């Protein structure tokens, strides 16, 4: 595990649900899970692609009912993240995955915000909340979700786009992103995870996003790589996720290092750490080993995470974190 100070920018809070907490919440809420126990559940984490993961992932969310459940989920993540060197976390959530099950959006947002708002004091982790739209649902459903979130916008920094990518291009959400922008929200989107480089271009040109979540398949398009490098568009890579969801064969084959060499502003993140085999400190360690990254390259990844963070209203914190990265002593590891 690498303890270098870092920001985590690509993290789905529902993807931090560990089997033990899932079973505890299932019992508390009277939910029957179709697994004999935590070991059997972990054994089911063998995915062939994004969709096979999403099916299990959405099934397990059935255990989350009350605001307290969401608070407990977020607290567990923040404590683990802090223990892995995270100083700043931008936490995504999927409101539609819960409202479709009859959980009010206010329950979800207020439950998460309760944990996030006290995280700096409790864990030394500053936080932001990013509300993602499920791209395999309609644009109307996304717009209704944005509308329903209006009483809670003081808790929300930005919007994102996730779930099944292929066949659901960013342009489907043009109006929703325009509406989000007019509400003062920041904009990110998953693109180029399983979808083509053209989706990365659309996310930039049609939605006007400031960061691309994943962006992995950008490497197939040299002109796009040149643009992303020139414009220093942050890409929030998730190497362990890419291995588990079969976007790359092995970690050794991951283009992270080549992307750094091409001058891209890449960051390393855990995506859904309970499902993909590691939190972000584990991920830093794994890519260091698999790709033979130098200490200076790990420092660059950590620096990039703070440069790409939505810390515009707290530049002093960004500077402090960057100074901590510069002074980090790898002999501690
Ligand atoms: O990796 C992902 N991709 C798309 N949607 C997701 N929702 C959780 N994780 C992911
Ligand atoms: Zn993701």
From TrEMBL:
<keyword id="KW-0479">Metal-binding</keyword>
<protein>
    <recommendedName>
        <fullName>Adenine deaminase</fullName>
        <ecNumber>3.5.4.2</ecNumber>
    </recommendedName>
</protein>
<dbReference type="GO" id="GO:0005829">
    <property type="term" value="C:cytosol"/>
</dbReference>
<feature type="binding site">
    <location>
        <position position="272"/>
    </location>
    <ligand>
        <name>substrate</name>
    </ligand>
</feature>
<keyword id="KW-0546">Nucleotide metabolism</keyword>
<feature type="domain" description="Adenosine deaminase">
    <location>
        <begin position="5"/>
        <end position="318"/>
    </location>
</feature>
<feature type="active site" description="Proton donor">
    <location>
        <position position="193"/>
    </location>
</feature>
<comment type="function">
    <text>Catalyzes the hydrolytic deamination of adenine to hypoxanthine. Plays an important role in the purine salvage pathway and in nitrogen catabolism.</text>
</comment>
<dbReference type="GO" id="GO:0043103">
    <property type="term" value="P:hypoxanthine salvage"/>
</dbReference>
<keyword id="KW-0378">Hydrolase</keyword>
<dbReference type="InterPro" id="IPR032466">
    <property type="entry name" value="Metal_Hydrolase"/>
</dbReference>
<comment type="similarity">
    <text>Belongs to the metallo-dependent hydrolases superfamily. Adenosine and AMP deaminases family. Adenine deaminase type 2 subfamily.</text>
</comment>
<dbReference type="GO" id="GO:0009117">
    <property type="term" value="P:nucleotide metabolic process"/>
</dbReference>
<feature type="binding site">
    <location>
        <position position="12"/>
    </location>
    <ligand>
        <name>Zn(2+)</name>
    </ligand>
</feature>
<dbReference type="InterPro" id="IPR001365">
    <property type="entry name" value="A_deaminase_dom"/>
</dbReference>
<feature type="binding site">
    <location>
        <position position="10"/>
    </location>
    <ligand>
        <name>Zn(2+)</name>
    </ligand>
</feature>
<dbReference type="Pfam" id="PF00962">
    <property type="entry name" value="A_deaminase"/>
</dbReference>
<feature type="binding site">
    <location>
        <position position="190"/>
    </location>
    <ligand>
        <name>Zn(2+)</name>
    </ligand>
</feature>
<dbReference type="InterPro" id="IPR028892">
    <property type="entry name" value="ADE"/>
</dbReference>
<dbReference type="GO" id="GO:0000034">
    <property type="term" value="F:adenine deaminase activity"/>
</dbReference>
<dbReference type="GO" id="GO:0006146">
    <property type="term" value="P:adenine catabolic process"/>
</dbReference>
<dbReference type="GO" id="GO:0008270">
    <property type="term" value="F:zinc ion binding"/>
</dbReference>
<dbReference type="InterPro" id="IPR006330">
    <property type="entry name" value="Ado/ade_deaminase"/>
</dbReference>
<feature type="site" description="Important for catalytic activity">
    <location>
        <position position="214"/>
    </location>
</feature>
<keyword id="KW-0862">Zinc</keyword>
<feature type="binding site">
    <location>
        <position position="271"/>
    </location>
    <ligand>
        <name>Zn(2+)</name>
    </ligand>
</feature>
